[in-house]
Amino acid sequence: MTGSTFRFAPSPNGELHLGHALSVLLNSDLAKAGDDRLLLRIEDIDLTRCTPEYEAGIHEDLRWLGIGWEEPVRRQSEHFEDYAQALARLIEEELVYPAFMSRGEIRAFIAGQDKAGRDWPRDPDGAPLYPGLDKSLGTAERQRRIGDGQPFAWRLDVAAALARLDLSPGRPLEWREYDDDDLGRFRTVAADPSAWGDVILARREIPTSYHLSVIVDDALQGVTHVVRGRDLYHATAIQRLLQELLGLPAPAYRHHRLILDAEGRKLSKTLGHTGLAALRADGKTPGDIRRLVGL
Ligand code: GLU
Q: Could you tell me the keywords of this UniProt record (predicted)?
C-alpha cells in the first residue's frame, strides 16, 4: 500500500462515538501498515451545526486513541472558494440548474402524486427524489426569478451529466470497492447516480454540499483510499459522477461495517453512552475501545 493516502473526515456537529472510532482506527491501522499518509479533515461546511467545542473534542478523542495524522488539518470552512470554483465549472457547462421549489412545495407535489396513486421514487436513503419541474424553465425566466431574489439551490442535472460522459459499454461509471473482511480482494461496483435524482450541490445558506466538497477535497489532498462507513456506500455513485464531470481522479473505496446499538440501529450523535468522551470518563482505555469495536 506504500504511497497511499488515507483520510478521516468527521463533521464537528456532535461527539465522536464508537462508529467513528472504528473508522479512524481502520484508517490509521491501514496507513501505519504501509507507512502511508493519514490526513484529518474537518467537514464543517454547515456553520450553524458545527461548533469549535465539538472540533476540539474530536482532536482530544483522537489524541487519546493514539491516532497520529499529518498536519495541517484541512477545515472545509476555510476553503469555500475551492468548492465555488468547482460549482462555477458545472454552471458554465450547464450541468446544474437553479431549483426554486421550496421544501413545502416539494412535499405538496409528492403528496399529490401519492394521492393520484403514482408511487413517487425514493433515493437510497428513503427520501423522495426532487421533482425537477424547474429544469424546463427558460433562461429568461430563471434570470427573472434570481433577479427577484427568489431563493434557490443548485441541483445537479443527473440526466444531462450522464449524457455528457462518454459512458460506452467499455467505459462504464464504476468504482473499486475493497472487501471489508479481506483487504486483498476488491470488486468493481457499477455506479447508479440516477438513484439519487437531482441532488443539491449548493444552497443559499451553505454555498456547497457534502458531495461537492468531499470530492474536491479528496482530489486536492491526493486521497487514494476512502475508508468510511457503509452508510455512505450509495453516496459513492454521485461522488464518482462528479469526479468524472470535473476530471478528478477516482480513489479506491472501502465501506466498512457499522457499529449498531442494542436495538440494531446505527449509532447517532445523541447516544451519549457510546460517545468516546463518556467512555473515557467511565475509565475505559484506548485498548478497551479497540475491543469494543471488534478490532
Ligand atoms: N463527514 C462525513 C461524516 O462525518 C464523512 C464523509 C466521508 O467520509 O466521505 O459522516
A: Aminoacyl-tRNA synthetase, ATP-binding, Ligase, Metal-binding, Nucleotide-binding, Protein biosynthesis, Zinc
How far is 35 from 190, CA to CA, in rounded Å?
31
Cβ contact 6:225 at 8 Å: yes
- Could you tell me the three cell numbers for 111? 403528496
Q: Which atom of ligand 1 is nearest to the CA of 20?
A: 4
Contacts of residue 48, Cβ cutoff 8 Å, sequence gap at least 6: 205
C-alpha cell at 134: 424547474
- The response to whether residue 12 sits with its C-beta less than 6 Å from ligand 1 reads no
Which atom of ligand 1 is closest in space to residue 239's alpha carbon?
9
Scan for cell 473534542, then name that residue: 57
For the chain, list the domains and their CATH numbers.
1-76+259-295 (3.40.50.620), 79-222+230-250 (3.40.50.620)
Residue 199: the pLDDT is 98
Residue 155 has a pLDDT of 98
Peptide bond preceding 72 in cis form (omega within 30 of 0): yes
Nearest CA to ligand 1 atom 7: 9
Q: Ligand 1: which residue has its CA nearest to atom 6?
A: 9
